[in-house]
Design a protein that fits this description.
The protein is α/β, with parallel strands linked by helices. The protein contains 9 helices and 21 strands. The radius of gyration is 24 Å and the shape is globular. The C terminus is likely disordered.
Length: about 425
């Protein structure tokens, strides 16, 4: 049986950031990875995918972007190369090809079964990420069996799709990018849009992520957010990693010929039924976008930057076609493929510790798992701040959790030392 002080599960950006933080604190550890470093980016991302964040924001502990295109957006292959180089730079002790089977609590730590090998550790960090499995709704069971169904984890390019129309369900970053890409291949595309976050790619000459960071929005702590559960489940903003200043929103897609319909509510007898509240949904997204732009303008004025930036402006409201259909007969042949861009979920099926709530989510306080001392969670949306969702957010999150882990190990040592001292004292003969 192998023993170590700490185990990090997952060698993506979050797991590697934690490895660096543990090394900084001289905590011996091992990183267990089911495939290769950056495995999800290697095997579960379509090749044309690019980061939503600009390259200058792709930073990890001890490593900032040093390329020649800071304003560009890294493709999937670039993320793989970046994380692979980073793992070598920090000499991360990664054991690749190691699939988790069971993690359970034992006295003074945890026992891990991986690749039929037992490993013991005093602390464990779960850094497998939030996008391991597709979150496909139950209504998918009612899809006619002759239709092709895909998720973003199995999609590679439009050439793999049969001829005919495509229904993309979900209008977050993934949904709008895939709807645009598939439509450009010549296929008719219908996009079912529920709640979404509308943002411009650039505003007043700066990338929107410059504004999100500069105004402090990304730095808002989890314990300062009124509705934390909602914040952790918000869809990703309607952005794509493109250097053009144009927006990737419903207006843009509709102008290119993508048909926009409301949220897919149910499928009955082969007929897809869509919500009639599309106009209200879009109006709410516009309202929230303008609230943030107001905040950005106020911050720019207070910071004395108005003279350096183009003047404030607003974007055309989302246009909703009143003729947008409320039903679509999936038996008619119009649609041959459904792509479920309805989100993702983590995979902790191997976790044999009762730390999940009734919805299956791990209970935690800023990444410190509730009810399991020494167990930590990393790489999840709004874990400690709104920046946690993005690669650069792992820097501060891993630092805070590694500090907590270090203190936890210290308290363990002190308790063990006290018990040993007490046992030694009590074992002394009584002198008279």
């Amino acid at each position: 049986m192998m023993q170590t002080t700490a185990v990090v599960v997952g060698a993506g950006h979050a797991g590697l950031a934690m490895s660096r933080r543990l090394t900084e604190r001289s905590i011996d550890h091992v990183v267990l990875e089911r495939g290769e470093v950056a495995n999800s980016w290697r095997t579960q991302r379509w090749p044309s995918l690019r980061l939503l964040t600009p390259n200058w924001q792709t930073r990890l502990p001890g490593h900032d972007y040093a390329g020649d295109d800071p304003g560009g957006f890294m493709p999937a292959a670039g993320v793989v190369a970046t994380l692979t180089r980073y793992a070598g730079l920090i000499a991360a002790p990664v054991r690749t090809g190691t699939r988790m089977q069971t993690l359970r609590a034992v006295p003074r730590g945890f026992e891990i079964l991986a690749n039929d090998e037992l490993l013991r550790a005093r602390a464990v960090v779960l850094a497998t990420g939030a996008c391991v499995l597709p979150a496909v709704p139950g209504i998918s069971a009612a899809v006619p069996p002759w239709l092709t169904t895909l998720t973003p984890l199995t999609y590679r390019d439009a050439d793999q799709l049969p001829d005919g129309g495509v229904l993309v369900v979900g209008a977050s970053a993934t949904g709008v990018q895939l709807a645009g890409e598939i439509h450009s291949s010549g296929r008719p595309v219908t996009l079912a849009a529920g709640e979404h976050v509308r943002l411009p790619r650039t505003y007043r000459g700066r990338d929107i992520f410059w504004w999100l960071e500069a105004t402090g929005l990304l730095g808002e702590r989890y314990d300062q957010i009124d509705d934390l559960t909602r914040a952790r489940h918000l869809p990703s903003p309607q952005l794509t990693g493109a250097s053009q200043a144009t927006m990737t929103d419903l207006n843009t897609l509709a102008a290119h010929g993508v048909r926009i319909v409301g949220r897919l509510g149910r499928i009955a007898d082969g007929v897809a039924q869509f919500s009639g509240s599309l106009a209200n949904t879009c109006a709410l997204a516009d309202l929230k976008m303008n609230r943030f732009l107001n905040r950005a303008d106020q911050w720019a004025t207070a910071s004395g930057l108005d003279g350096e930036l183009p003047p404030p402006h607003r974007f055309v409201p989302t246009r909703v076609d009143p003729r947008s259909p409320l039903e679509l007969d999936l038996r008619s042949g119009q649609i041959t493929t459904i792509l479920w861009a309805t989100g993702f979920r983590p995979d902790h099926s191997w976790l044999d510790i009762p730390v999940r709530d009734r919805t299956g989510h791990i209970r935690h306080d800023g990444g410190v798992v509730t009810g399991a001392p020494g167990l930590y969670l990393l790489g999840m949306p709004v874990l400690r701040t709104r920046a946690s969702t993005y690669i650069h957010g792992a820097g501060a999150d891993s630092d805070a959790l590694a500090g907590h882990l270090h203190s936890f190990l210290g308290s363990q040592r002190r308790r063990q030392g006290y018990r040993q001292h007490a046992a030694h004292t009590h074992s002394r003969p009584i002198r008279t």
